[in-house]
Amino acid sequence: MGLAALWSCWWTGVLLSASLLTIWNLPAEAQLALQAGPPNTQSEKDICLCLKPLELLAKPTISTSQGIVIEHRGVVTFRCYTVNINVSIHWVSNNIPLVLNERMQLSADGKSLTIFTVQREDAGIYQCEVWGASEVQSSDITLLEVYYGPDPVEIKVDSGILRGGVVEVTKGSTVNFQAETQSYPAATYTWYLPNDSILPPTTRTLTIPAVSGKDEGIYRCLVFNSATHMSHLGALKVLVLASQQSLAKPCVVSPSMDFVENTSSVALTCQSTYEGISVRWFREGRVLLPSERLVLSTDNRTLVIHSLQRDDTGPYQCEIWTWDREAWSDPLWLTINYGPDRVDITRDTVSVVLSTVEVKLDSNLTLQCWAESQPGAQYCWSCEHLGGEYTGGQLVITAVTWAHQGACSCTASNPLTGLARSASILVHVVGSQSPSLSAGTIAGIVTGVLSVIALVAGLGYYSRKAGWLSKILGDDPVSKASQPTSGRKHSTEPSA
């Protein structure tokens, strides 16, 4: 038989074998593999058809390190077990082939899948598949739960006009609040009302029928997830308008309230929920216009006053207005601290400023110290020949003595401005006696008295004359002056 005939016969055998296999369906456990090769003999009898059984795949099993994970706090590992060899492992999530991301990692043999920093989108069902040459086997499903939230809370209303974080509602209308957040498992909701009352944990909605002025304020909702132990607080401010045509009241705010004359500036802001609305500024009911120290922003919402003066003290208001409506803010009172200015010292209730005061011996003296200052100044007195300092604007000295003669000074200070000023007054004590007698004067007086006594003894006056002499000596003013005054004590302690 020629070579061409042999090839023709060989292909006929292959086709015949294929036809037989198509008609004869073997059971799965007895599948055969067809092997055929070109003839290597000279006879048709040497053509052979070789069949061998295929390896069957067993169903894999899947396990997980943990089935419940808190978002951002856990790592989970899945493992796929199979008894077959020479197979490939594939992973399925939520019934679609798993696409790995930067947080996922497969082992070298593909049998382990690790998810780092688990997130909520990783939740769902997982399976592993074993792929053989002609067969695929899937494991049972395993569930991964991811607890998360609550996310930041947003409070919405179904009525009114929302402007930024403020909603305007009309008096008498019904307002429905709804807190929106994401949380698994479901969170609990606690509402805090403007009057500081707290509602028991409830649902995400809150209804206020027939809203009135007393319902105006800030509403807060605390959302809590008991599984993640996390919470978030949402807030919404509600303004109640008399009618839909009313404007919500603006508010004047200042970043600071500590101002010192000539050293401080202030920037007042008119806060309003309306955009592009006209704004005017007032102090004590008079409109404020730009000047050398007063500057307005382009939209008039910010008022800047440079180098504040004491005359800038007062209530400030802003007004928002349209062609048919207007609304005023509450007054914001600014106090400019200054002083102390010049210190004045007066006596008693007399307003005449003194630099010298004359006071009689043994009388009382009241001195008053005063200086213009905001806040009121603190006063401190000190006097010559008197120890210590005395606080208060008034200095009272009772029973003036010679020791009180001299200068007294008063210092006024302002702790807020850090300034202090002083003034002095000279106290001059006057009386019928001199403050002291010199030693020569005292010696002359003593000598004169002794001379008179010797003269009387020498003349030998009768005893009746002695009475007359004693009378003369008793009326002598020099004898009176000889009595010492230093032994007498005067109170030198001033009383305030």
UniProtKB/TrEMBL annotation:
One of its GO terms (cellular component) is cell surface. Residues 60-142, 150-231, 250-320, 340-426 form the Ig-like domain. Residues 1-30 form the signal peptide. The keyword Cell division does not apply. It holds the Pfam family Ig_3. The chain crosses the membrane at residues 442-462. Residues 475-496 are annotated as: Disordered. Keywords: Disulfide bond, Glycoprotein, Immunoglobulin domain, Membrane, Signal, Transmembrane, Transmembrane helix. InterPro entries: Ig-like_dom (IPR007110), Ig-like_dom_sf (IPR036179), Ig-like_fold (IPR013783), Ig_sub (IPR003599), Ig_sub2 (IPR003598), IgSF_CEA-related (IPR052598). One of its GO terms (biological process) is heterophilic cell-cell adhesion via plasma membrane cell adhesion molecules. It comes from the Eukaryota. Belongs to the immunoglobulin superfamily. CEA family. PANTHER family: CARCINOEMBRYONIC ANTIGEN-RELATED CELL ADHESION MOLECULE 5-RELATED, CARCINOEMBRYONIC ANTIGEN-RELATED CELL ADHESION MOLECULE 8. This is Carcinoembryonic antigen-related cell adhesion molecule 20. It comes from Heterocephalus glaber.
